[in-house]
Amino acid sequence: MDDGLLATYLNDHLAGATGGLELFRRATAAQRDTPAGRELERLTAQVAQDRESLRTIMSTLGVAERTYKVWAGWALEKAARFKPNGFLVQRSPLSDLVELEALVLGVTGKGAGFRALRAAALPALDDAELDRLIGRAEQQVEVLEDLRQAAAARALPPTP
Fold first, then answer.
1. Phi and psi (nearest 5°) for 85?
2. Banded pLDDT at 29 (limits 50, 70, 90)
3. Which end of the chain is more exposed for a tag (fewer CB within 10 A), N or C?
4. Minimal CA–CA distance to 130: which of 80, 44, 56, 74?
5. Burial profile 67-105: b = 16 or more Cβ within 10 angstroms, e = fewer
6. Mean per-residue pLDDT for 28-53?
7. Are 99 and 144 a contacting pair, CB within 8 Å?
8. What pTM was computed for the model?
9. DSSP state of 159
10. Which of 126, 133, 120, 111 is nearest to 46 (CA)?
11. If pLDDT is split at 50, 70 and 90, which confidence band does 49 have?
12. CATH 3.30.70.1400, applies to 3-83+94-155
């Protein structure tokens, strides 16, 4: 395996994990006093742990973090907040739905990254740990999908 490709791949996932964690924090804060907020708070803690697991994997493989990519992931999440939503100073009723959809996509990508590492069968990596991370990502997607469907029902009521 080309070490340069592996470093690029892992750093791209780290950038995504950074942006994703920021989005989790934002969604959690926006829904703090709701049942969804409590669930998102639990998931946010797990996602932060998963990001640290990725950093550990990178360290184990001798892959240096490319700080500019991490900052780019953080900055892109912040910039995405400024998209027009038809509401000047408040959240759109669609905000929860759109954020949850983005979180589903991000966690699906995270799981795909861990599955790719598992398939690469890199001797330095612990297969059981990768399996745990893959399983946790799958559980996170299930929870997020339930939250997303509930948000869709609230944001997109049936028309008469």
1. -130, 10
2. very high
3. C
4. 56
5. eebbeebeeebeeeeeeeeeeeeeeeebbbbbbbbbbbe
6. 95
7. no
8. 0.86
9. P
10. 133
11. very high
12. no
Cα 17 from Cα 86, distance rounded (Å): 28
Residue 84 Rama label (left phi>0; alpha psi -120 to 50; beta): beta
pLDDT tens for 68-111 read 566 555 555 655 555 555 554 567 778 899 899 999 999 999 99
Q: Is 157 left (phi over 0), alpha (psi -120 to 50) or beta?
A: beta
Give CA angle at 135 (134, 139), nearest 5°: 120
Handedness of CA 12, 13, 15, 16 (dihedral sign): positive
DSSP helix/strand/coil, 91: coil
- The DSSP secondary-structure symbol of 160 reads -
Q: Write the DSSP assignment of 46-88 as a string of letters.
A: HHHHHHHHHHHHHHHTTPPP-HHHHHHHHHHHHHHTTS--S-S
Q: Which amino acid is at 3?
A: D
Across the range 58-63, mean pLDDT stands at 95
Which whole-number Å values give the CA distances from 110 to 24, 54, 156, 159, in the listed order?
Answer: 14, 10, 28, 36
- What are the start-end ranges of the H helices in the chain? 3-30, 35-60, 67-80, 95-120, 127-155
